[in-house]
Fold these 2 entries.
Entry 1:
Amino acid sequence: MSPHGSSSSPGLPLFVLSLLLLSPPGTLAGGDGRPPSKPIVTPISKDGSTSLYTIPVKGGAPLVLDLAGPLVWSPCQPGHRTVPCKSSVCTAANRNHPANCAYTGTGQPGSPDPTCACTAYPYNPASGQCGSGDLTIAPLSANATDGKNPLFPVSFSAYAACAPDGLLASLPSGAAGVAGLSRQPLSLPSQVASRLKVAKQFALCLPGGGQTGAAIFGGGPFELQAAPPMELAEDLRKNALPLLVNPKNGAYYFRVHGIAVNQAQVPVPGGAFDLDRRQGTGGVVFSTVTRFTTLRSDIFSPLINAFDAATSGIPRRKPMPPYDLCYEASAFSSTRVGPGVANIDLMLDGGRTWTLPGASSLVQVDERTLCFAFQSMGSESTVANSPAVIIGTHQMENNLVLFDLEKGTVGISGLLLGRRTTCGNFNFAMGSS
Ligand SMILES: *[C@@H]1O[C@H](CO)[C@@H](O)[C@H](O)[C@H]1NC(C)=O
């Protein structure tokens, strides 16, 4: 349930962080040998059986997106490179030790022994398992982009943790590991920024089933095909919201003031959405490894009651666990933004709202049945690091979400279907640079 278990650790002074990313040795080259300072684009696939998302950045092999993950990790070949324990990057790799993850006792950061190879502790967000392995330097690749098309291939190297093969359990078949996208220094967006000298931002457009979405790392425009083509990034930057920092992890939290159903505010206890920075609990956080937005029970109960009341005229079907509230699919009109139903609005800073229409609030469970696409955390809401609300991928799908790690902001487009496009409309045909 937590976006990421981690023990608390004192923050490193900023100057140490900026020294950390002194480039790993290895390839620097873009397609033609000059260091590219263009953002990179990669397709996003959705795995039908796990509902996880992957990007093929490890020489074509897919890594699972984990917004809260601090590291890039994958099993290694024998003879892989290692990183000295005394290096500052070893300290960075060990800053967010997964909760309940046993230390192996070797490769401790800071050891002055020159033969000591740094150990890192990769975490599988789908199974909750952790493992240990060498910190290594892995080759990654993607295409440079102008925000409209891929332009030319780019290879670069990044620090990554080796993982035992068994740690791949519960990931999509064929996945080679995980790409952590958090705010921490060894996440994929942080390393892309320092290696390719691009902006420390990324834009995520998660596709619905059967489509190919896109992620752009490094800033710049983000254009989707529509009539006419639509550039979305500039507007998102102008209307960005502040991210909140949880000192216990590197996940992406933002402020929510309330929830409304059909324009009427849902009665939740005061302060229900607040992030407790000292405990690292509460708050509203994005997750790419949680399918349906999951709410603490003191928020979930009034929300489902309000939605139930707002849809009282719609014929029901028997609840199909894990879904609590289901409807006769044929009873809804069909609109551009999904089944015609009362909107759910997240009330954000500055009077802004993130509207969740039918395509975001309901899920098709079978031919005849649509169900309410939110879940309760249950009563074990005191789990360490448990947020108040985990925004899941069903609600993020077909929204462009732009994270700026430098400024500490997030921009959310709202459901793109309302603008007659989808995350499946990035043009992956090669363009000319
Ligand atoms: C670059 O884009 C082309 C066209 O979409 C694709 O075939 C190729 O695999 C991409 N290369 C990398 C390194 O991602």
Entry 2:
Amino acid sequence: MSMNIPLVDLKAQYAAIKPEVNLAIHRILENTSFILGQEVVQFEDAFADYIGAQGAVGVASGTGALHLALLACGVGPGDEVITTAHTFFATAEAISQTGARPVFVDIDPKTYNLDPALVENAVSERTKAIVPVHLYGQPADMASLMAIAQRHNLWVIEDAAQAHGAEFRGQRVGAIGHLGCFSFYPGKNLGAYGDGGIVVGNDLDLLGKVRRLRNHGRISKYEHLEVGWGERLDALHAAVLGVKLQYIEEWTELRRAHARSYTELLADAGVVTPFVAADVRHVFHLYVIRVARRDEVLAYLREKGIGAGIHYPIPLHQQPAYRGTDIGHVSLPVTEQVAQEVLSLPMYPELREDQIAYIVEAVQEAINR
Ligand SMILES: *Cc1c(COP(=O)(O)O)cnc(C)c1O
């Protein structure tokens, strides 16, 4: 028996909601209101409600969300921003885009999220903000991070690109820090059919700045208060996302159930299964195990038709863009170790139990070889 199982199956999701999605797309084609307008506002309101935030501003990508959120908080040249190196490149890229300097600190070996004790040690005179990432869908330790931020008067901008609907002590991430940033990249837990993102928050003044920056610094049709960006969320994406938002809770519970199955079936496999911190709702954007001889295991899984992946093989301080610079000149032992051992198994709501069993069996075979 052989199966082909992708890391993410976007076709299965489209098949399940095709009529509604097609209707939404055709509504926009007919009304030709492609930029901003009612569709975008409606989705922003619905998403803010879902997160439990006062407001939301749709933008062109998750990267754009981070960039504009940092700018709205006044982050710029001469500032330092503390973040993790075990994440997608865009987290640090957005900091660099503002002219500020990313300062990487090491992660907790169990959750793979920022280690608050190390964050506090890294605070300097120049530190302006902390950007925690809720990696793989698990919230970072927001209680400790917010306390540090308060002590040192820092902004907290959450990178929630992988954590739609995740909760820390009952509160949805994105609305805990000063601003929260989400990505609607197609493979994310809530995905558009192209690029998209959103900034959420409770400070309407800050959100107003993001709203202005995403649209050329505009305050009226012909007046530009400042130099901004063309970083708007398209109405077509907003319409599709509005349909999908109605399913996100159902999809998230399926992800969580698949994670429980994996963890149960992998209990004696000789791999490290995901640790879930107390008091969080992990939304399993990715199901990531740790194994020695990771690259051999990955090759074997691919031979068996399983679309496993690595998130992420090269820590950001070792990326060519930062290597050899001041920014890359830092030692992060946990991050470096974890980067060699993490392995993402297929995870999406439509994944079936027989597929999970097949994947687990293949992992077991690979380990025993
Ligand atoms: C996907 C992602 C981003 C960037 O989002 P885009 O929409 O692709 O620009 C930023 N941070 C993290 C952690 C991500 O996973």
